[in-house]
Amino acid sequence: MSTETGWVGERSLFGHSLRRIILYAVLVGMGAFYLIPIETGIMTSIINPASYTGSFPYLPPLEPLVPNTGEFSLEPWQGAIDGLGQGLVNSVILVVPATILSGLLGSMAAFGLTTIDWRGQIGIYILFVAGIFIPYQAVLVPLTQFWYNVVPLQAAFQPLAALPFVESYHWKLVALIVTHTAYGLPICTLLFRAHYKKLSDEMVEAAQLDGASVATIYRRIILPLSIPMFAVVFIYQFTQIWNDLLFALTIIQFGDAAVVTQDLVGIGVSQSGTNFPLRMAAALLAALPTLLVYVFFGDKFAKGVAA
Amino acid sequence: MAELTLDGVTKVFTEDDGNEITAVDEVSVDIEDGEFLVLVGPSGCGKSTTLRMIAGLETITSGEIRLAGQRINEKPPAERDIAMVFQSYALYPHMTVRENMSFGLEESTDMAEAEIDETVEDTAELMEIEELLDRKPSELSGGQQQRVALGRAIVRAPEAFLMDEPLSNLDAKLRATMRTELQRIQNDLDVTTVYVTHDQTEAMTMGDRIAILDDGILQQVGTPLECYHTPNNRFVAGFIGDPSMNFFEMAVDDDTLVIDRFEYPLKPAQQEAVAGRSHVDFGIRPEDIRIKDPGGLSDNYQFEVTVDVVEPRGDENTIHLTFDRSVDDPVTFTATVSGLRDVSAGDEVIATFPPDSIHLFDTDTGVAVHNRTFDSEDATKQVL
Amino acid sequence: MRNPLTVLRRRLSKHRELRADGGTASQAGSILDRDSVRSAPFWLPPFLLVGLFIYGAIIWNIVLSLTNFQGLGSPDYTALDFENYVIAFFGGTPSWSELTVSPIWNSAWNTVVLMVSFSVVCLALGLVLAILVDQEIRFENTFRTIYLLPMSLSFVVTAKFWLYMYNVETGLVNLLLGSVGVGPVEIVQNPDLKLAAVAFALIWQFSGYAMIVYLAGLRAIPTSHFEAARVDGASTLRMYWRVIIPQLRTATVSALVVLTVFSLKAFDFLFSMYGGYQPGPSADILATRMVREAYANGNWAYGSAIAVILFLMALAIVTPYIYSQYKRGEL
Known about the structure:
heterotrimer; A: mainly alpha; 2 domains; two-stranded antiparallel ribbon; C: mainly alpha; MetI-like fold; 15 helices; 0% strand
């Protein structure tokens, strides 16, 4: 059809219909490339480990209909929940406050360094931005020293352990919350600052003339206008902190406070070999919160990473 | 009663590299109670900075600003009893019109909620925006946002209004309507108003008086007609009026001004004004130049010229004239003639520069040494 | 007629609060009125947190790298020397150990190889994907979502998936190779393939990020540029090569910086892939070496020294970037 090219705009590399078929084939092929490791994981995670052969890891378990595909079973997921349960709980205890704190403090910092305009703030801000790019190895040893030998957090935490739902090992999670808050601040500040730079200066001045103090301007003008950015920042921070292993490894190290990424590293390996169904189920279970967030708020996630 | 006084107000900005820039230099104006003063000048002339100093959004380097006789230099913006309307309107986008108008009362008074509501509604009625009260700014047209911005300023019952190019975001037609509307409201409320614009037409049509700023220095304060007919200097003469005044730099030869293309005889009073100078800038407004068909020169104020370009404007035409088209760098000037007059490029015509309409300026300083004949009493009577 | 403003004024006059606080405009006023000070409650606490945890820790780490700290008791700050750096560059037996410690060249080399191959392939793939997605295709959102999906995963999860994909007997990669008559090949523990396998898995995870950045860059180019090139008679490929890609410089630089820093942080991936601190010499990067020295071998000060080297590498990449951003007023 000659009209086929009509709706293809100026940007198009692929004017003809044959070219467009190739285009879509490539796009779908790349989609398969990104999805197959996950798809294989899902299929394997619902195979009864006893019937697992590994011959067709990408097929659903259809035994006895299709031989060698394994029998369907939720046993691996049960095993993953048992193995990661404690880690999941710890991760939630860690991620929720750390995400909210870093977002809130990041918004405050960006407000103080952007909306309220003063000389020299750019210098302070550069220190924030540079913090985004620090390889965390450069601070690990001092961090371990700080939380284990300088701050008597463990001792200070003992009396609190008497409270309901508080365990003595939670001090490690508190240390990790503070650490993640501090290291999340640079990116949060950057995201909020980009947003606040777009807000009208005149609006802030109008509020000043209306008699609003700096705190009131933040609370009544800036904060309500930041809600879309909070969604972006919270999603980004949630993903980052949930997925982190390095800080957990060096601050929690081992024990009851271990978070889900730590638990995941060793799961599914035993003397008798690797239990792939269990391992895949565990990987998917650990990834589930971030995957769900991504599937439901993908556009906001994209906005966060592209900033 | 609130008269607003600017007394030697100066603003010096220090740049990051330590350079100092004087944005506003020793500006002094007395604005009477209820007066509408328009602060006009090209962009970067310091007019906005001056307004922001009055508002308290910018510190004052030296000098004093008094409102109703009281020094307000150190007062924070909210306590100055001043309201401001911004170029972008600066409405709070997440609040309804009602909340926008209540905000200032909530933050700067201890009024009860019910009383705030009543005050807001009364003001909305005055501004004819009652039915917009529960809408968000994004649901309003430009003109409606403009009214809300005015309403938000009025509801706080300030002693003085400051307006920073409030009409520049509107399209031309709405701008003309709002211009009249603003004047009416200002007149009804009888409130001291300082209005900043770069548009000299706005300044001429709206102000009780206009203050012209250039490069941070106040050039002239006066009624629009005073500034138009008796400019203090060449800058004011060129800035006010559209199309601009024509200028020729001419040599003084006793009782005559001389330039390559023409000579102009001076009246005795004019001779006196230029006495002792070797050069002056000769100025004449396009509408003062009279054009007639060729047919001999009847006096020394007439010159044979050629039409270069005609810009029709409907009611009148702006025509660009030249003494000699053939030279590379011809002396050209503009004149306005009735739109009904039929002229076209290439026509030979005779231009008259009437001697009572000319302005003479010092070439070096630009100061006016002689202005056209103008009786402000007469002019005022004519306007009224 | 009564002036409505007078009525309002009378009503308001009873309610005006006389406030003494919160001056904005008083240059002669106290230092407390400055904007930097009035906004301090907002920026100062976050700044202190960042200052203490990031910059304080970096400085402390530099000092620690000059000690002989091995984890017992507290570090001895009285005898500072550059021994750890000498060991890091030349190897040998340090004064704090009886064992010979190898220099970092191997892991530094691996770091650079991983960094360059990973970043370059990610950028190239991301650019191609971005151009394809920018062809006014249907289901654009779906494709974009799928391409960026791996980015939402943890390094640890990615490692588990690819450990499975690379498995000799049951991995999909070997099944595919087998179907064309190759293999099975040992990948994960094969010294020749290790680093490539790691890079490949990371490219799978992060090329979607490069696509998103490029796509934003492409969308920022006005359609008139595409049209102008068309009118000039440029072929499609030439148009992209001469007109469009040069305009993606900013996108390339910012994606490159972020990807490079990601690759410096690839520790989580390697730790998870190899189930601990020992990825083996052919996949050892500075990030893993540093953590292994400090946390597995107890050579804390030596680990700090490696961390300083890693930090300087990151600084060398990031400083010009931030400086150019600052110069262009984009901060």
